[in-house]
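Page 37, top half.
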Amino acid sequence: MSNDTEQLTVTVQAREFRFKCPIERKGELLDAVERLNRMIEDFGRNHRSSSLEHMVVLVAINLICERTATSARVSDLVVQLQEKCGSLVGRLTQLNIDLDTVLISSEESREVI
């Protein structure tokens, strides 16, 4: 990641915000702003009397819940993958032992003949 930053101006619900962002993350941040605007609009349709600040807090809580759930799913998948890898390593080890046994047995048969 480079240290190059640029001044970025974004609009969230008709309010402009300026901040510096790493150049290589500009697209990612602009996509996040679009998603934020869509989420606020969605919450606004369901909570007409809510202020912008209230909707932003609801969106933030929702995003944190999504991230927590996603992290939990990723952790579960990592555990499953580790278990499957362990099982595969065990199988490969056994195959290697079996192959060695067959090769040794084959060499011993040749020596007898």
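Page 37, bottom half:
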Amino acid sequence: MADVTRFCRMLVRLFLFFVLVRSAQNAKEQRVAIKFLSSLRMKASRIHEHLEIVHGRLAYSLSTVTRWMARFRGGNASTSDLPHPGRPPKLTADKMRHL
């Protein structure tokens, strides 16, 4: 029984790792798309529509698209997210790789 429990825990950790990695990739893809489409002078609402078609439920909200567009137009060329204040998560993608 202990082996089954250990195996189940390992599966849950593996699943969470893939969700974290996919989520990060999805966010990066959306930011790159926002940067490109906004450079073509496309409106935020239209960019949001495109993101919804491609990413479905995982698409950024219209307000998030607008925020990223403002960052890019303000001269910030990076598609990386800024550090967040507060306590860092206990389980990071790097820690998951070592499990």
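Margin note: The two ends are 21 Å apart (CA to CA).
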